[in-house]
Amino acid sequence: QVQLVESGGGLVQPGGSLRLSCAASGFTLDYYAIGWFRQAPGKEREFVASMRWSGGTTYYADFVKGRFTISRNLAGNTVYLQMNSLQPDDTAVYYCAAQRVGATQYDVWGQGTQVNVSS
């Protein structure tokens, strides 16, 4: 079964850090890009960061540059999102998704993990 499973969400105080994981199973990420997206209550889903599995090229939304880092574990078929200096505006459900190289959209989505930033 092809799936992505996120983990690592939770409650953190402003200024704190979390690391999200996205584990792929049922397929290899060799020919995919992995993206992280988030959706806050009442808002549309937005792009956060992405990484092309082959070569490791990364992209970030402007609002997370310098705070979030996307990385990968080649052997574990896992992508991470290290989030530092978290702020209440970062509260959202975070999703990872996979897009096959050459495709026009992300076609495999995880179930999401909740991140709450609050004092």
Short descriptors:
mainly beta; four-stranded antiparallel β-sheet; 11 strands; globular
Can you describe what's shown?
The chain is mainly beta and 119 residues long. It contains no helices and eleven strands. Strands 2, 4, 5, 6, 9, 10 and 11 form a seven-stranded mixed sheet that branches. It has a four-stranded antiparallel sheet with strand order 1-3-8-7, with no helix packed on it. A hairpin with a 6-residue loop joins strand 4 and strand 5. The mean pLDDT is 94.
Give a short summary of the structure.
The protein has 119 residues and is an all-beta fold. It is built from no helices and eleven strands.
- Identify the overall geometry: globular
Whole-angstrom Rg: 13 Å
Average pLDDT, all residues: 94
- DSSP strand count: 11
- Helix- and strand-based class? mainly beta
Note the main sheet.
Answer: 7 strands, mixed
Beta fraction: over 45%
Encode the helix/strand succession as letters.
EEEEEEEEEEE
Q: Give the uncertain stretches in residue-range form.
A: none
Number of helices: 0
Helix content: under 10%
Give the CA-CA distance, first to last residue. 39 Å
